[in-house]
Amino acid sequence: MDSEWRIRPESGECAEFYRGYIAGVPDGDIRMTLALGLEQTLRLLWEIPAERESVAYAPGKWTVKEVVGHLTDAERVFACRALRFGRGDETPLPGFEQDDYVRRGGFEARTLTDLASEFEHLRRANLLLFRGFEAEALGRKGVASGHEITVRALLWIMAGHELHHVAILRERYVTGGP
Predict the structure, then answer these.
(1) Class of the 22-50+60-174 domain?
(2) What does pLDDT average to in each consecutive run of 10 residues of the chain (178 residues)?
């Protein structure tokens, strides 16, 4: 049933921390939202001037390359959780410390084009994975980072997380910034 893919996660489907990401996602089929988000993100990345790729807009903030690396890392983590819980794996999964991942990611040694390509390929692979999920998989739950979460919430969080970081990139590196 395609209508299942349009249902916004309810408050009990994830930790409160993620509700802001979900709230920022427009209504509609979450698979389409993720596909359109990818296209918008890639277009935005091509607008960022090369001289800003390795600049943080403020002390302690990530560079453009680090943000894209973080998006890719988070996409992998969220998709792995969705796969495992969607297939009925009830093993509790640990959290991940995003700052440690970024610090050890080696993103500054890579080109923005390479990082964007990795994100693109990962998202496209995830969209194929999600296309194979039966509607019932969306309501399956698991525990990640000590909190119960549904597959549906994970997909909406992926979209909202991307929108959150794209808004920062647009504001700080395309329309304004350092």
Answers:
(1) mainly alpha
(2) 90 96 98 98 94 94 98 98 97 96 98 98 98 96 98 98 97 79
